Amino acid sequence: MGTPGEGLGRCSHALIRGVPESLASGQGAGAGLPALDLAKAQREHGVLGGKLRQRLGLQLLELPPEESLPLGPLLGDTAVIQGDTALITRPWSPARRPEVDGVRKALQDLGLRIVDIGDENATLDGTDVLFTGREFFVGLSKWTNHRGAEIVADTFRAMAVLTDHPYASLTLPDDAAADCLFLRPGLPGVPPFLLHRGGGDLPNSQEALQKLSDVTLVPVSCSELEKAGAGLSSLCLVLSTRPHG
Q1: Is 135 exposed, middle or buried (0-12, 13-18, 19+ CB in 10 A)?
Q2: Are 4 and 54 contacting, i.e. CB atoms less than 8 angstroms apart?
Q3: CA nearest 24: which of 6, 10, 37?
Q4: pTM for this predicted structure
Q5: In terms of CB atoms within 10 Å, which end of the chain has fewer, N or C?
């Protein structure tokens, strides 16, 4: 594992956004979500940030919570990042579209090439997109339509494989795959790390993930934030500011 500040593999930074009080009311973006324990949600979010920084050695950048953006902590929905390019998404819900502004600026300040979606007919949720290292899998859902998937392919000049589920190509159970954040290795002697929802949150995922060889599991909990629809992959963006070969 890289030392703190060195970064894990080809990833050097992680971006998260603080949990606002407005999320606890259960009225996030007009969604009528269940009320949640704000203090617990903030603790879980803090632990996630700590593991990204201390356990995985990434430079952590945290956007401040914004009361006008109750679902702002789900910033993984707002961008698809590969290499030095960040595709800023177009959320299905108009109430969530202002969330992309702060993310766009943060990624731009880090030197990434920013691509915005200009097609008003497109919708795209970043957590409906999975990059395997060679291809993108884009799930068509309530949040991502066919045009949004096409824009992923056009942006990264890669094959977009359209499936009925964003993780249908994986052999892990759906709930396990949806709550994994995989950081690929890039340094000699550094094993892959798989940040995942802990067995206490998803008991079945623990058993499935333990079958993966040469992978260090780093469990975290986001059980309270899950009430707001947050999977692990939606709570942070990981990226590299280093040159890509």
Answers
A1: middle
A2: yes
A3: 37
A4: 0.78
A5: C
Owning domain of residue 178: 13-239
Q: Strand, coil or helix: what is 83?
A: coil
pLDDT at 54 over 80: yes
Residues 6 or more apart in contact with residue 114 via CB below 8 angstroms:
86, 88, 104, 107, 108
Q: Is residue 205 part of a domain?
A: yes
Residue 225 tokens, joined: 């934030």
CATH of residue 87? 3.75.10.10
Residue pLDDT, tens place only, 65-85: 999 999 999 999 999 998 889
Assigned domain for 2 exists: no
Dump strand ranges (E) for 40-198.
Answer: 59-63, 79-82, 85-88, 113-116, 129-131, 136-139, 160-163, 180-183, 193-197
- The domain tally of the chain equals 1
User: Is 1 among the domain residues?
Assistant: no
For residue 41, give both structure tokens.
């949600």
Residue 189 in any domain: the answer is: yes
In three-state secondary structure terms, 14 is: strand
- Scanning the chain, the segments in alpha helix (DSSP H) are 38-50, 99-109, 146-156, 174-178, 203-209
